[in-house]
Amino acid sequence: MYRGVKILHDPVRNKGTAYTEAERDYLSLRGLLPPRVHTPSDQELRVLSNIREKPTDLERYLYLVALQDRNETLFYRVVMNHIEEMMPIIYTPTVGKACQEFQHIFRQSRGFYVSIEDKGRVKEILQNWPHKNAKIIVVTDGERILGLGDMGAGGMGIPIGKLALYTACSGIHPTHCMPVMLDVGTNNESLLNDPLYNGLERRRVRGDDYDELVEEFITAAQEVFPGVLIQLEDFGNTNAFRLLAQYRNQVPLFNDDIQGTGAVAIAGVIGALRITGSELVDQKILFLGAGEAGIGIADVFVAALAEQGIPADEARKRCWFVDSQGLLVSSRESMAEHKKPYAHEHPPLASLLDAVKTLKPTAILGLSGQPGTFTREVVAAMTEINERPIIFALSNPTSQAECTAKQAYTWSDGRAIFASGSPFDPVKYNNQTFVPGQGNNAYIFPGVGLGAIVSHASVITDEMFLAAAHSLANLVNESDLERGRVYPPLSRIRSVSAKIAYDVAKMVYDQGLTDKVEPDDINAEIQEYMYRPVYPHYA
Q1: What is the second-level CATH architecture of the domain 90-251?
Q2: Contact 522, 505 (CB under 8 A)
Q3: Which of 23, 78, 315, 415 could link 305 by a cystine bridge, Cβ 3.0 to 4.6 Å?
Q4: Where residue 1 falls among pLDDT bands split at 50, 70, 90?
């Protein structure tokens, strides 16, 4: 047991001014703290006052990161009790700005760095991690951070933020979470020319050296932390698809940008259909962007139709893609491997607007990272085709959204069913108030992770993400739908995550994807595991 100043410097055990009189004696804290004992509620009030006085979201982010570094219990108390206010600060959209400025706002190291120069001794250095019971690792190589591109080592902000959401949204204990950056260099010239950049000063490593580092890391992680769940995050398209294919059947591993995004988007579409009154089998979806997110959504859509007896080949024909070269068609001379299943026979079309007018989709989903691409003309065309057009501008952060909530509602005369990747404020139009849904992966990955951890899942399957999508869609109530919201409020995220965790764990047990015996009460086991930000007693 740490005592004196050491326990005050331990963020897991520190209680700040909330140590009781007895604890101050027992832990040799007399004189090291102001004399008044404050309640956790007092401390929360102080934190909120400070946050709300900060002039920018980036400064609020820095304040919260500093709090996390000194008192994790208080950090999570504030975040959990005010999740709708805090999530945009600790994750999208603010985390994007934090990654862009990472080398300039660096205060204290958080997370774990494995560089290409560590090849051959990754297992050795993983043992330096202070928490020996890691149950989930979120790992990135920083190549495709949100819609911002190559952030190199600055991409560490994403694993840190994701894992904060794992704790806040689904109750995975902070000491069970491990953020990892695989630093293999960067091709971002501004970073390479910045004397404060804190990653490797070299261009990205490709080929065998890269693959050998990833292989060594995944193998070593399983040896040092047996059964640890690994989430691949913000890898470039080429690496993301092939790494997922290579490792998904070997270890408990998934890619949130592909599978998590797919699940949350399809949940939103299912919610939207409760408003339109139409069926999933009758949808034709047009995607802007054919990267990880778009293909991931299409794959979940195909899986959902397969449940209803639609063959995969037929289901794929209901998904169309527009990328930087126009409509994705089978006659295109060359294309990435992951795009080929969705390249259909059709004359080429140059623009999104042409594709909307020709294909007449029921929904358009933006995953391009190109702001303003859902133009007035595109929204008007969708509204002419559909009584209630489904328009999801899912690119993150907010600055990259294909259109704003206000644009979608006003350009469609209030008829659009809108959702976005980052939050937008409610919109008043024609005496109505519309509440945009936020298609945030935080609705999906924390629950999937919790269910996998509790059940000791040996692998993570696409069926688990489809089950999570159905769970999420079913948790949207009628009052949400009446306001145009296709996702439940973030204030209910803990119960959403617990329900998804149950469905995932039940699937793990039913399909024999674990060596653990199914408990009598899965829900009770989940609730018992879930972390709550309550101070321990030391005396």
Answers
A1: 3-Layer(aba) Sandwich (3.40)
A2: yes
A3: 315
A4: confident
